[in-house]
Amino acid sequence: MAGRNEQAVIIKKIEETGGHGHHGGAWKVAYADFMTAMMAFFLLLWILAASDEEKLRGLADYFTPSLSESGGRGDGLLDGMVLGQDGVMSGTDGPQSPVQLPSFGQENPLAVFDSRLRDPDSRVVVEFDTRPDGTQDSQTINTGENGVADGIAAAQAAAESEAEAEQLERAEQEWQETQTRLEESITDRVTEDPKLEAMIDNLLFERTADGLEIQIVDKNSASMFATGSARIEERTRDLLRIVAEAVVDLPNEISISGHTDSVPYARAGTYSNWELSADRANATRRVLVDTGVNPARITRISGLADTVPLDPEHPTAPENRRISVTLQYPQDAQP
């Protein structure tokens, strides 16, 4: 009977499901705050990058603290008076403090955004690419107050100057190649023609300060014009046509000059070597135009008589009687 009065022991077994406890949601709040701060930061960077100088200056003025410059004196109720521990009002009626108070960028608020503006004596050395001759160009730019704008303008001017120099160099190189091609083309055309092959010595090329000068000169055995006349011999006409065909598609301006020797012109009256040389130059112009050269390209016709001899030591030499056709330098490749 005693066994029946004993209280039964009940054991309750609880099996846990799931491998991890609950960690809470605090990390989500921290992560959200972090993302909000990053968004605000990048938004600020975007605003600064998209704002012009006037807006940046206004933004800097907004965040610049206003300081009292009265030297410790006030204009309010206490007029600069301070209540001490003993209850006595103290203050100063003296002059303003000689100590220079910090301005926090009041003079130049943009210095807050660019440290180079804070040092008026700072310098920046801008180095450019090495030149073809091996030297390297450099320039010192002031980056003090307003120095950033000046530095940018100077750098842009230097870059434009460098680009212009490179363009002129390329144009000069192209012009040199054009002259070489012209000389070779005219020479080949003359030597390939059996009737003109013997006149190759009458053809001279000279690269002058004005451009490529193509000269057709007299020889003892081959005269370019009839004696004492502006009438062009047939072989001279054929030679001029070859020259015209070589330059017809080029944009360069052309000048033509006639030259004679120092032998006085025998025709009576006022007609002299001046008129003869000018008439021969004009006759040459007509041949070039008839061959297809644009008349607008011919800018000067001149008769120089015997003032510019090809052989100064022998004024009466036949080489001094000649016609010069000058293909002038292009405008973008002036030496």
Automatic annotation (TrEMBL):
Q: Where is the OmpA-like domain?
A: 212-331
Q: Name one GO cellular component term.
A: plasma membrane
State where the protein is found: Cell membrane
Where do transmembrane segments lie in this chain? 29-49
Q: How does it sit in the membrane?
A: Single-pass membrane protein
Residue ranges annotated as coiled coil are 154-188
Family according to the record: Belongs to the MotB family.
**Could you tell me what this protein is called?**
Chemotaxis protein MotB
| Annotated source species | Alloyangia mangrovi
